[in-house]
Amino acid sequence: MTLDKNFLWGGATAANQTEGGVLEGGRKLANIDVLPFGEDRKKVASGDLEMMEWKQGYYYPAKEAIDMYHHYMEDIQLLAEMGFKVYRMSLSWSRIFPNGDDKEANEEGLKFYEDIFNELKRHGIQPLVTITHFDVPIHLVKEYGGWRNRKLIDFYTQYAETVLRRYQGLVKYWLTINEINILLHQPFVGGGIVFKEGENKEEIKYQAAHHQLLASALATKIAHDIDPENKVGCMLAGGSHYPYTCRPEDYQEAIKRDREGYFFIDVQARGKYPNYALKKFEREELTIQMEPEDKEILAASPVDFVTFSYYCSRTVSAHPEDYEQATGNLFASIKNKNLPSTEWGWQIDPLGLRNSLNQLYDRYQKPLFIVENGLGAIDIPDENGYVEDDYRIDYLKKHIQAFKDAVEIDGVELLGYTTWGCIDLIAASTGQMSKRYGFVYVDRDDEGNGTLKRSKKKSFNWYKQVIASNGELLD
């Protein structure tokens, strides 16, 4: 056997992509709720188009999503049937603190998640909980400017302490902030930031990053103080960068791009700013406000383990003209002719997962956890909702073999693996339902039509077999 007998197999979702029930149970709007479907989505996500409430003429996919708010018992039953050891999920900040700066938590929201955790426990499934997953209460965006404002550290830590105390004994594994490096690419999604004309965007993004890094360190300390058994991780939108050619400047560009993401994890895992980041601030004349105690806060509470998402590798060049053959990824990338692509232009690279695991383990020497991996594809169900998704099985099989090789051959310490969107959900990047990842088909289309009926795909029983065999039976 190549994997530890306690290896954590499971799947992952996010509150804003599954729950719905946006204004139910005392919850109020969050930044992610006002991301519209369609051509304006990217402009809102990047902080270049202000949208603080639902507007006529737009469809907002998160408003109902797949209505897990009312279906979670049924959904957990399906996860249990597959044999999940772990379920990665996120909490909705505005379900627990509706405005974000409330003095008291919303009991109805706290009870909702407590019921979910008890149901998971009944089925022997460990929750892996992301405290905030692309999620800022809209009041904190309107009133304080999102994470650009240092006051959000206090609001976040109050929220974190509330859930860490309430769910003590029910949750052991925590992640502070989902894909923290997305802040640099989609500042409204990652930080609730809307830019004003003439602002230094780079300075604001890194100031917000500083606040998030402090908040993460403080939450890690709180978690350890409340229960020494708590394990706290950070979360990177991962995927190695390859140089487009063997030109030295292309290789240098690949290092530079890797560091854009590693910057956050360097701070969270090592407890201090890397020199290359400090030099960047100096070189680009970015003034990042830091208080005297900030260094000590970061140094005192590094994370226990490192988690990341992996969907594809990326290919980069130092020469702008090479990007004429770009792929459809959020991160600028050139089409790699050596790799096949998904229907959305993401390049399929199982060996890239093994490479990423090795890079991260070499860099941090901390246990790793793959918390998102999967194939977004158009599924065509039969009249019973059954999907012959052999393409998904093939993708996952090759990626599982790749991480098994990283463990068995390379000696990487890996805690677990959660596939993304184990139940079909709203795609974060596009807001589409048609970009499906799940083992469970949900009857809903891109316009919000459908019965929401759940049905098992072919991959459901395949993954059940994978888990039961601890990854030995992949065919």
UniProtKB/TrEMBL annotation:
One of its GO terms (molecular function) is 6-phospho-beta-glucosidase activity. SUPFAM superfamilies: (Trans)glycosidases. InterPro entries: GH (IPR017853), GH_1_N_CS (IPR033132), Glyco_hydro_1 (IPR001360), Glyco_hydro_1_AS (IPR018120). The active site is at E372. It comes from the Bacteria. Coiled coil: none annotated. It is an enzyme of class 3 (hydrolase). Its EC number is 3.2.1.86. Keywords: Glycosidase, Hydrolase. Belongs to the glycosyl hydrolase 1 family. PANTHER family: 6-PHOSPHO-BETA-GLUCOSIDASE, GLYCOSYL HYDROLASE. This is 6-phospho-beta-glucosidase. It comes from Enterococcus larvae. The gene is ascB.
